[in-house]
């Protein structure tokens, strides 16, 4: 259930950012923006949050794992928004600028979302302490 609520939170965050930028600033269609938000959220949640973030935050320090996952989420966001936007939006939308701006803003949101994932969704790290009183 924790993953479902995290997915819904990420979907709301992604849709809000894309609606403000793609629809509000660049004049994209609302239904197309929502469709891109859903596809982006599915891919970014599975790849960026479940796989990359959990693996790298366990292997390295939290900041390093969060940085790697945030960067990969931003690149993935740019690619998905650019290619889906190129295929679905009308030609009046400057999809390159919109994709770049969305990926930067989503990167900031992802940094904070990973903090939420670390504290509320993922299992706490097991810390072992081997102390001997010999």
TrEMBL record:
<feature type="transmembrane region" description="Helical">
    <location>
        <begin position="7"/>
        <end position="28"/>
    </location>
</feature>
<feature type="transmembrane region" description="Helical">
    <location>
        <begin position="95"/>
        <end position="113"/>
    </location>
</feature>
<protein>
    <recommendedName>
        <fullName>DUF2512 family protein</fullName>
    </recommendedName>
</protein>
<feature type="transmembrane region" description="Helical">
    <location>
        <begin position="68"/>
        <end position="89"/>
    </location>
</feature>
<dbReference type="Pfam" id="PF10710">
    <property type="entry name" value="DUF2512"/>
</dbReference>
<dbReference type="InterPro" id="IPR019649">
    <property type="entry name" value="DUF2512"/>
</dbReference>
<feature type="transmembrane region" description="Helical">
    <location>
        <begin position="34"/>
        <end position="56"/>
    </location>
</feature>
<keyword id="KW-0812">Transmembrane</keyword>
<keyword id="KW-0472">Membrane</keyword>
<keyword id="KW-1133">Transmembrane helix</keyword>
